[in-house]
Amino acid sequence: MQQTTALTAGKEDYPPGDFVIWIVIYAELLAFGIFFLSYAFARSQNVELFNASQLELNRTAGAINTLVLITSSYFVVRSIAAIRENLQKQAARWMWAAIGLGSIFIVIKLFEFYTKYDEGITLSSNTFYMFYLSMTFFHFMHVILGLVILTIMATKIRHGDYTAQEHDGMETGANYWHMVDLVWIILFPLVYVIR
Amino acid sequence: MNQPHNESSVSHRGSMTLRPCTLVWLALVGLTLAMLVVGKMGLSGGNVVALLLVATLIKTQLVADIFMGLRQSRLLWRMIVTVYLVGVIGLIGLAWWLGNV
Amino acid sequence: MQYQSQMAAKPYFIAAILLFVGQIVFGLIMGLQYVIGDFLFPEIPFNVARMVHTNLLIVWLLFGFMGATYYLVPEEAETELHSTKLAYILFWIFLGAGVVTVLGYLLVPYATLARITGNEILPTMGREFLEQPTIIKIGLVLVILGFLYNTTITILKGRKTVVSWVLLLGLWGLAIFFLFAFYNPHNLVLDKYYWWWVVHLWVEGVWELIMGAILAFVLIKLTGVDREVVEKWLYVIIAMTLLTGIIGTGHHYYWIGTPEYWQWWGSIFSALEPIPFFMMVIFAFNMANKRRRQHPNKAAMLWAIGTPVMAFLGAGVWGFLHTLAPVNFYTHGSQITAAHGHMAFYGAYVMIVLAIISYAMPMLRGRAAANSDKSQVIEMWSFWLMTVSMVFITLFLTGAGILQIWLQRIGENPQSFMVVQEKISLFYWMREVAGVIFLIGLVLYVISFFIGGEERTAPAKA
C-alpha cells in the first residue's frame, strides 16, 4: 500500500469508501443513464408534446430542490472534514443538517407529486409525464434510502464510532448520497429546463 | 487509506481561505441559479442548450472530483465517471439536436 | 460433512438427478415431434410432452434447492437440523406428488385430470407451467411450508450468516410468490399479469437469491476466501437483482393489455437485469483468484465457475437480446424465447444445483473431500458435453428464431406459421442432435458417481 501510494504520486488505489459502494454507484449511474437517454431520445420523436408538458412543471420547485440537495451534499463533505479532525460534535451537527435538507427535498417533491396527482396526471397521461413521474419517483426512492443511510451515520457519529483514523464507513455512505445528488444535477436541467 | 484529504490539510481553520469544497458548493449554487433563470425565461436554441449541458457537465464533474473524492484516486475510477458524464450528457445533446434541428 | 442431519440432502439430490434425466428424455421426444409431428402420437402428444418437460424441470430444481438447503443450513448455522425426520417425510410426500402428477399427465386426458381432481372447486389448472392439479398445488404449498419451518427454526437457533439469510429470503419469496398460482381471475389480462408474479418473480427474482447464496457457499468452501468479502458481494448482488428484477417483470407486460408505460419500465429495468449476473461472474473469478487452498474437488470448482458464466450468457445476454419493447414486438413467442429459456435455465439453475451436488455428494456418500481423479475426469467430461451442447442448442434455436421472425413477421410476404416451421426444420434437426449429446453428457454425469478409485482427501494448502 505504502509503495503504490508513493508510485502513483499520492493517489490512492480506490476512491474513498468501500470499493463495493463504487460498484453500486456505477450500476446506479448506469440505471439512471439509461433512463435519461430514453427520455432524451423519446423527446426527439415528440418535441412539441414534451415542450408543452414541460411548461406545466414547477421549475422553481425543481431548482430549489437542486440547491437543497447540493447543499446537503456539501454538509456531508463538511461532516467528514470534521471527523478527519476528530471533531465528533461538529460532524454530527453537519450530518443532521444534511438530513434536514434531505427531508426538505422530500417535502417539496411530495408537494410536486401532489400537485400533479391533483391535476389528474398519471403515468398514462402522456410519454412526457410517464418519464417525469417514473424518473423523479425512482430518484425519490433513492433519496429516502440515502436519508436512512445518513441517519444511521449520524447516530454512529454520536456513539463515537468514527474517528480521524477510521471512518471508511462514513465515506461509503457519503458517496452514496453524493451519487443521489449527482444524478439530480443531470435530471433537473434535462427534465425541467432544456427545451 | 485515510490520509487527510486536500481540503483539510490545505485549509487553515480560522483563516479566511475558503475550503475547496466550499468553493465548489458556491459554484454549484451559482450554476443552478443560472439554470433557473434560463428555465424561467423559457429560453431555447442550440447555444442555450449547449451552455446548459456544459454547465451540467462541470457541476457533475465537480461533485465527483471534490465531493466524492475521485480526484484523489487512481485515474481509472475517475475516468469511468468522466466517460459516463461526457457520454450521457453528450448523447442528451445529440438527442436534442435530432429533435430540434 | 460436519453434521449428521446434512444427510437429509442425499435423497433430494438423487431424486433431482433422476427427474433431470426424465426431463431430458421428454425434451428429446418433443424435439423430435418438432420435425416428425406424429411421433408417439397418440400416446404422448406434443402438449403433454411439453408439460412434462417443463414441469419436471421445475420440480427437480426444487428438489435440488431443498437438498442444497438441507446440506447448507446445518453447516452455516453450526447446528443439527431442527427435524431430520420431517425432512425425510416431506421428501416422500413431494416425490409421491410429483410422480402422481406426471403419471396423471401421461395416463389420462388433461380435462379428465381436471375433473377427477376437483378443479372446478378452485380452478387453477390450464395455465402454462402451473398445469398441476389444484390439490397438488396445495400439497406443494404444505411441503414448502414444512420445509421452510424446518430450516427457519434451524437457522434461528444457530449461527446466523449472510449466506443463510439470503437463502432463506429467496426460499420464503419462492413460497410467497407461488401463492399467486391460486389467483385465477376471469379477466385474462389480470390473469396473465399475476401469473408472471409466479413465473418471472421466481426465475428473475427470488431464485437468483437462492442461486447467489448457494454459489457463495460453494465458493467459500472451495476457495477458503474470507466470509466477509463474500458477504459484501452477496449484498450488492441481491440489491441489484431485486432492483432490476422486480420492475423488470414489465418486459412480460408489453403485449397483454397492460398500460403503455410498462413498455418503458420493462425495457429500461430489464435492460439492467444482466448486471447482477455480470457481478456474479466477477465475483466467482475474484474468489477463484484469491483462493487460499487447492480443493481436491476440481469438478465442483468447474461447475461453480461455469454457473455464473453460463447464467450471464443465457439469462443476461440472451435475455437482453429480446427484452427491449421495440425488438420484442417482433420476437415475442418465437424460437428466440426458447433459445433464451434453455440457456438461462441451464446456466443459472441447472448448473448451480449440479455444482452443489458435485461438491456435497462425495461427502454425503461417506467419501473423503472429493471423488477419485478418474471419477472427476468423467464428471468434467460431462460438464463440457452438456455445456457445449447447450450452447449449440441455444445457437440453433436462435438461428431458427431469426429465420422464423423474418419469414413470418418482417419479410415482404409474411408466411403462415406451419409453412415457416417447415422451412426452419433443419435447425430443429441440428438442435435434436445437440440434445442427444446433452443426454450423453448427463448419462456420463450419472456414471461418474459410480466410479470408485482412490478418493482425494482433505484440502491441501495452496
* Helix-strand pattern of chain C: HHHHHHHHHHEHHHHHHE
Q: How would the global form of chain C be characterised?
A: globular
Q: Which sequence of strands runs across the widest sheet of chain C? A: 1-2
Radius of gyration of chain C: 22 Å
Total E-strand runs of chain B:
0
What is the helix/strand order of chain B? HHHH
Low-confidence stretches of chain C: none
Described by strand count, sense and barrel closure, the largest sheet of chain B is: none
Kindly give the count of domains of chain C: 3
Low-pLDDT residue spans of chain B:
1-12
Helix content of chain C: over 70%
**Which strand-content bin applies to the residues of chain B?**
under 5%
Going by helix content, strand content and strand pairing, the class of chain C is mainly alpha
User: What gyration radius of chain B follows from the Cα positions, in whole Å?
Assistant: 17 Å
Membrane topology (chain B): Multi-pass membrane protein
Keywords (chain B): Cell membrane, Membrane, Transmembrane, Transmembrane helix
InterPro entries (chain B): Cyt_c_oxidase_su4_prok (IPR005171)
GO cellular component, one term (chain B): plasma membrane
